[in-house]
Amino acid sequence: MARGGMSQAAFAKALEISKGSLGFYERNENLPNSDVVIKICSLTGVSLQWLLMGSGAMCLEEEEPKVEYTAAETIAKLEEKVSSLEQQLLEARAEAIRAYKLAISHMQTESEIIQKADFQRATHTPAKQAYSEQRVEEKT
Length: 140
Hints:
This protein is mostly helical. The chain has helices at about 10-15, 20-25, 35-45, 50-55, 70-125, 125-140.
Protein backbone atom coordinates (compact mmCIF):
# COMPACT_ATOMS: atom_id res chain seq x y z
CA MET A 1 0.00 0.00 0.00
CA ALA A 2 1.20 3.46 -0.88
CA ARG A 3 0.10 4.80 2.48
CA GLY A 4 2.70 2.69 4.28
CA GLY A 5 2.12 2.43 8.00
CA MET A 6 -0.48 5.21 8.15
CA SER A 7 -3.99 4.21 9.10
CA GLN A 8 -6.69 4.62 6.49
CA ALA A 9 -8.29 7.39 8.55
CA ALA A 10 -4.99 9.29 8.98
CA PHE A 11 -4.11 8.95 5.30
CA ALA A 12 -7.59 10.07 4.21
CA LYS A 13 -7.30 13.09 6.50
CA ALA A 14 -3.85 13.96 5.05
CA LEU A 15 -5.35 13.74 1.54
CA GLU A 16 -8.32 15.82 2.64
CA ILE A 17 -10.81 13.17 1.51
CA SER A 18 -13.21 10.88 3.35
CA LYS A 19 -12.18 7.49 4.66
CA GLY A 20 -14.89 5.94 2.48
CA SER A 21 -13.48 7.54 -0.70
CA LEU A 22 -10.02 6.23 0.13
CA GLY A 23 -11.51 2.76 0.64
CA PHE A 24 -13.12 2.91 -2.83
CA TYR A 25 -9.75 3.89 -4.38
CA GLU A 26 -7.89 1.14 -2.57
CA ARG A 27 -10.41 -1.51 -3.69
CA ASN A 28 -10.35 -0.21 -7.31
CA GLU A 29 -14.06 0.62 -7.08
CA ASN A 30 -13.51 4.24 -8.01
CA LEU A 31 -10.70 6.44 -9.41
CA PRO A 32 -9.36 9.50 -7.60
CA ASN A 33 -9.38 12.86 -9.33
CA SER A 34 -6.09 14.43 -10.42
CA ASP A 35 -5.78 16.55 -7.26
CA VAL A 36 -5.97 13.46 -5.06
CA VAL A 37 -3.50 11.58 -7.25
CA ILE A 38 -1.00 14.43 -6.97
CA LYS A 39 -1.49 14.56 -3.18
CA ILE A 40 -0.90 10.80 -2.93
CA CYS A 41 2.35 11.13 -4.87
CA SER A 42 3.45 14.11 -2.77
CA LEU A 43 2.70 12.43 0.53
CA THR A 44 4.15 9.02 -0.26
CA GLY A 45 7.00 9.75 -2.68
CA VAL A 46 5.48 7.29 -5.16
CA SER A 47 6.03 8.20 -8.80
CA LEU A 48 3.02 9.36 -10.80
CA GLN A 49 3.82 6.89 -13.60
CA TRP A 50 3.88 3.95 -11.21
CA LEU A 51 0.68 4.99 -9.45
CA LEU A 52 -1.31 5.50 -12.67
CA MET A 53 0.27 2.94 -15.01
CA GLY A 54 1.95 0.42 -12.74
CA SER A 55 5.22 0.82 -14.64
CA GLY A 56 8.56 2.46 -14.00
CA ALA A 57 10.18 2.98 -10.65
CA MET A 58 7.77 2.95 -7.74
CA CYS A 59 9.52 5.67 -5.81
CA LEU A 60 10.82 8.96 -7.06
CA GLU A 61 14.55 9.50 -6.88
CA GLU A 62 15.27 10.18 -3.27
CA GLU A 63 16.44 13.69 -2.76
CA GLU A 64 19.01 14.53 -0.19
CA PRO A 65 17.18 15.39 2.98
CA LYS A 66 16.96 19.06 3.64
CA VAL A 67 18.91 19.92 6.72
CA GLU A 68 17.09 22.31 8.91
CA TYR A 69 19.00 24.18 11.56
CA THR A 70 17.75 25.99 14.58
CA ALA A 71 18.31 29.73 14.71
CA ALA A 72 21.20 29.24 17.14
CA GLU A 73 22.85 26.64 14.86
CA THR A 74 22.40 28.92 11.84
CA ILE A 75 23.96 31.84 13.73
CA ALA A 76 26.86 29.64 14.86
CA LYS A 77 27.50 28.44 11.29
CA LEU A 78 27.38 32.01 9.97
CA GLU A 79 29.75 33.17 12.71
CA GLU A 80 32.16 30.37 11.71
CA LYS A 81 32.04 31.51 8.09
CA VAL A 82 32.57 35.15 9.07
CA SER A 83 35.50 34.18 11.29
CA SER A 84 37.03 32.13 8.48
CA LEU A 85 36.61 34.99 6.01
CA GLU A 86 38.14 37.45 8.50
CA GLN A 87 41.15 35.13 8.89
CA GLN A 88 41.53 34.88 5.12
CA LEU A 89 41.34 38.67 4.87
CA LEU A 90 44.07 39.10 7.51
CA GLU A 91 46.28 36.60 5.70
CA ALA A 92 45.71 38.35 2.38
CA ARG A 93 46.54 41.72 3.93
CA ALA A 94 49.73 40.32 5.48
CA GLU A 95 50.75 38.87 2.11
CA ALA A 96 50.04 42.19 0.39
CA ILE A 97 52.17 44.03 2.97
CA ARG A 98 55.04 41.52 2.48
CA ALA A 99 54.82 41.96 -1.29
CA TYR A 100 54.75 45.76 -0.92
CA LYS A 101 57.81 45.76 1.36
CA LEU A 102 59.68 43.47 -1.03
CA ALA A 103 58.83 45.75 -3.96
CA ILE A 104 60.00 48.79 -1.97
CA SER A 105 63.21 46.96 -1.06
CA HIS A 106 63.88 46.15 -4.72
CA MET A 107 63.13 49.73 -5.69
CA GLN A 108 65.53 51.05 -3.03
CA THR A 109 68.26 48.67 -4.17
CA GLU A 110 67.74 49.69 -7.79
CA SER A 111 67.68 53.34 -6.78
CA GLU A 112 70.93 52.95 -4.82
CA ILE A 113 72.60 51.32 -7.83
CA ILE A 114 71.49 54.15 -10.08
CA GLN A 115 72.65 56.76 -7.56
CA LYS A 116 76.10 55.12 -7.28
CA ALA A 117 76.42 54.96 -11.07
CA ASP A 118 75.38 58.61 -11.35
CA PHE A 119 77.87 59.55 -8.62
CA GLN A 120 80.68 57.67 -10.33
CA ARG A 121 79.91 59.34 -13.65
CA ALA A 122 79.72 62.75 -12.00
CA THR A 123 82.96 62.36 -10.06
CA HIS A 124 84.92 60.68 -12.82
CA THR A 125 86.03 63.73 -14.76
CA PRO A 126 88.74 63.70 -17.50
CA ALA A 127 91.20 65.47 -15.16
CA LYS A 128 90.81 62.79 -12.53
CA GLN A 129 91.22 60.18 -15.26
CA ALA A 130 94.53 61.73 -16.36
CA TYR A 131 95.75 61.98 -12.76
CA SER A 132 94.85 58.33 -12.13
CA GLU A 133 96.63 57.26 -15.30
CA GLN A 134 99.69 59.30 -14.33
CA ARG A 135 99.86 57.67 -10.91
CA VAL A 136 99.62 54.25 -12.49
CA GLU A 137 102.51 55.08 -14.82
CA GLU A 138 104.62 56.31 -11.91
CA LYS A 139 104.18 53.10 -10.03
CA THR A 140 105.26 50.99 -12.95
